[in-house]
């Protein structure tokens, strides 16, 4: 017999954070915060004030005021609170895809005498597509890791493909489909033992667990802000470069924002000596402002407390799904998963559509997966219970 | 004796559009709309509604609703109203720098047997930096056009450097410093006569004059939306690809948004057959929404009426500056300039700072230039008169 959800909500130390978000009463349960996070109330006010007071009134003077430094100052806030990164190693700009593209070139440039790049075949499409195209452009061979969907990318499996030719390894800390959590410090160590560098994709882990990039000696990392960072659809992504790479790192999109003096507009390109060298063109100021609000909410709650609630939410979800006899593809050990739980169901698309009809928003992933995203600051246990109940109902319905 | 500005404002058929913008009474004159355009009132409402109702309430379902198509649908609106481009040739996403980077690779790919790229040395820094770095990466040689600041990039001057080795020519339609307007159809024809392709940077021309990319047979074009399109700091840029290039065009940042089916997340990358192939990662939805509002304002006024007022504003500015004996670097023929007028002044930085102290915002450009940006929908003749009067005062002050 599972604990009633209201008991769990009453005991949740983060329960009050739910009121910090816009919660639509028309929805029974929003279980897709790992695709697009809910809207923080503070962001509504902040964006309104930004538009009226900063853009509308300061106009171009806003660039002198603070806008020019925002990619770095908000990057520092994000890095320190969420990534375990000291100041000066994180910037916010562009999309995850564009940032990953830059980091792939940067990482290849850091190992010029090697010619293989390793990625798992279950990685997110953009990661796979970019690795293939950048490898082709730079003359590298792609070595595919082919774990089962539910496998962790174990140190052992990875060890089999790493060697003296390995330049770069690209992995996601949390698998976007199964929710499998990879052991970031152990994998990073292994990659370094083979003399290669690692690029971590943190899209499905940033903001829901403690991450310690500096202390794990990570080389490069990238992640998005519209999931657990609640920064809005298409909000700018972040990238991280370890301090030891900063002075030599290169990226191919050399624009005026990566130049040493943005407004000197000098005749010859001199690259910025700082993390700004990873920028290219003008980033979305409103987007970065929204990221700042998202980061501050997480920093206020604390990533340790958030991870504790994330584990409780996924454990509760697993318990409810087990009771109903549904097939779970997410690892059953809390320590081995991120903050979403994935169900395999026949006719998954029809099930997902039926759930949405009834006010529960999950995420469908081809061909037969339903993801339940649990965003610790805005998802209640009551919401999970109601959502899973309707999921079970809809699966039953399609079986009839 | 110049006409009094109130007479000019009274006769201005676009005068009423000024009320469609947030006008800060603390400013005597905002003459920097060519760096960052003023905030349209409709955009305040639209962004507020977007945040509360679309992001806050529709949440992930917004992607199904319309967000996924916005880069193309708003691109089409922009293309048809502002660029003379049929549907399916324009997309909105990323920054101008990232888009230019993609187009440079696309253009080089369209002329694989040639090895020179031509750009003028007075072009905007991002254009020059990107041309140099992409040329180096792709093994091309950069041929520099070196016009004087005030020269038009004439068909004759360009003809001297074009030849059988020319793959790509990169030019700005309006020079960001002098305001010089290049003859886009004539230059495009000349480039084609030499078998090369052209990439036009429209940052300082889009929205203030009629542009006819399709009928001029332009190959590629890029431009920003935060100047005369009033879409806010760091709003996403646009890019245009001629229909004849679409089926074969390639760009290096192959992300999930350039794949043929965004949500199939298939194992192998299959590039979209449409203009979507120029996308990469998730674009800023709020940014595109703001672009749509900016485009609609311009479409409502009409680019021909806007160009007529732009010419009247620059002519009036030139007249006032002549009366005061200031040195103008912008061409004196209205047909040869865009919508800003640039003054050369000793101690230009100090002059610009003094102007800002007195409530007039111009734009300083190294080493001795002051740009007066005239945004036809939001700039009044009275504002120009007051702004130039204070400029003249401040120049006098520094001469004492």
UniProtKB/TrEMBL annotation, chains A, B:
Keyword Hydrolase: yes
Sites bearing N6-(pyridoxal phosphate)lysine, chain numbering: 227
A Gene Ontology term for the protein's cellular component: cytoplasm
Pathway it works in: Cofactor biosynthesis; NAD(+) biosynthesis; quinolinate from L-kynurenine: step 2/3; Amino-acid degradation; L-kynurenine degradation; L-alanine and anthranilate from L-kynurenine: step 1/1
Stated family: Belongs to the kynureninase family.
Subunit composition and interactions: Homodimer.
Protein name, UniProt field: Kynureninase
Classification lineage: Bacteria, Bacillati, Actinomycetota, Actinomycetes, Propionibacteriales
Gene it is expressed from: kynU
């Amino acid at each position: 017999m599972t604990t009633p959800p209201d008991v769990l909500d009453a005991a949740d130390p983060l329960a009050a954070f739910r009121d910090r978000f816009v919660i639509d009463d028309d929805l029974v349960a929003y279980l897709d915060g790992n695709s697009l996070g809910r809207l923080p109330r503070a962001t509504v006010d902040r964006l309104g004030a930004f538009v009226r007071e900063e853009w509308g009134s300061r106009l171009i003077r806003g660039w002198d005021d603070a806008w020019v430094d925002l990619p770095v100052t908000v990057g520092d806030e994000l890095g320190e609170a969420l990534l375990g990164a000291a100041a000066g190693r994180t910037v916010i700009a562009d999309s995850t895809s564009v940032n990953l593209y830059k980091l792939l070139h940067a990482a290849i440039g850091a190992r010029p005498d090697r010619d293989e790049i390793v990625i798992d075949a279950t990685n997110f499409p953009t990661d796979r597509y970019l690795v293939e195209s950048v490898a082709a452009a730079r003359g590298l061979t792609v070595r595919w890791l082919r774990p089962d969907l539910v496998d962790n990318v174990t140190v052992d499996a990875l060890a089999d493909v790493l060697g003296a030719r390995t330049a770069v390894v690209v992995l996601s800390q949390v698998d976007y489909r199964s929710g499998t959590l990879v052991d970031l410090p152990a994998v990073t160590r292994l990659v370094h033992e083979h003399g290669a560098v690692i690029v971590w994709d943190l899209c499905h882990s940033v903001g829901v667990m403690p991450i310690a990039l500096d202390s794990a000696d990570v080389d490069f990392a990238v992640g998005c802000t519209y999931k657990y960072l609640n920064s809005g659809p298409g909000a700018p992504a972040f990238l991280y470069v370890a301090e030891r790479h900063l002075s030599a790192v290169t990226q191919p999109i050399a624009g005026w924002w990566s130049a040493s003096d943005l407004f000197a507009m000098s005749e010859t390109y001199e690259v910025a000596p700082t993390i700004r060298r990873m920028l290219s063109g003008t980033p979305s100021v409103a987007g970065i402002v929204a990221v700042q609000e998202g980061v501050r909410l997480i920093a206020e709650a604390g990533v340790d407390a958030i991870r504790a609630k994330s584990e409780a939410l996924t454990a509760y979800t697993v318990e409810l799904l087990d009771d109903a006899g549904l097939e779970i593809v997410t690892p059953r050990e809390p320590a081995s998963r991120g903050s979403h739980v994935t169900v395999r169901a026949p006719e998954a698309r029809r099930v997902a559509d039926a759930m949405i009809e009834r006010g529960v928003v999950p995420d469908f992933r081809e061909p037969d997966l339903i993801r339940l995203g649990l965003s610790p600051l805005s998802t209640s246990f009551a919401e999970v219970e109601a959502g899973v109940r309707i999921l079970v109902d809809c699966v039953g319905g399609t079986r009839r």
